[in-house]
Design a protein that fits this description.
Elements: H1 7-51, H2 57-68, E1 78-80, E2 84-86, H3 89-93, E3 105-113, H4 121-125, E4 131-139
Antiparallel strand pairs: 1-3, 2-3, 3-4
Helix pairs in contact: 1-2
């Protein structure tokens, strides 16, 4: 009997530790997928807003504010590139820019750096895998 004393505690630990790790992994994966859907929705709404405005610096600030207004999106992890303006799609594809005043199209690159909530050090290890990026091409209504 004395040799088996404490064996239940060891067995519980051997089972509970991997189970808790599995629960944490499922939580973080679910959070990542949920944030990915929210990020897609935020980019979609920001693109609609940009389309209805004239190309300008204040429009860019409004787009960034719209992106940051969504839940779960932290402004510190969000990056909105300066837009590339062009007259046609072929100009955008060939990296020929034009001025904002004569632009019919704009291209924004939006990135979001996801960070793990429960184990933040994993974010540094998997930085490339955990970065969400969308390219918005906006056709102005004007």
């Amino acid at each position: 009997m004395k040799r088996q004393q404490g064996s239940q505690t060891v067995e519980f630990t051997l089972i509970a530790f991997p189970f808790v790790l599995l629960l944490l992994a499922v939580f973080e994966l679910t959070r990542f997928l949920w944030l990915n859907m929210v990020f897609d929705s935020a980019v979609n709404h920001a693109m609609r807003l940009a389309r209805s405005m004239e190309p300008s610096y204040s429009a860019d600030q409004s787009v960034e504010a719209k992106l940051a207004s969504f839940p779960l999106i932290d402004i510190e992890n969000l990056t909105l590139s300066s837009p590339r303006y062009a007259k046609t799609i072929s100009d955008l594809a060939n990296y020929r820019s034009s001025s904002a005043s004569e632009a019919k199209l704009a291209q924004y690159i939006v990135t979001y750096d996801f960070s793990f909530l429960l184990i933040p050090k994993l974010s540094a290890m998997w930085k490339e895998s955990m970065t969400l990026q969308r390219i918005m091409v906006v056709a102005y209504d004007n």
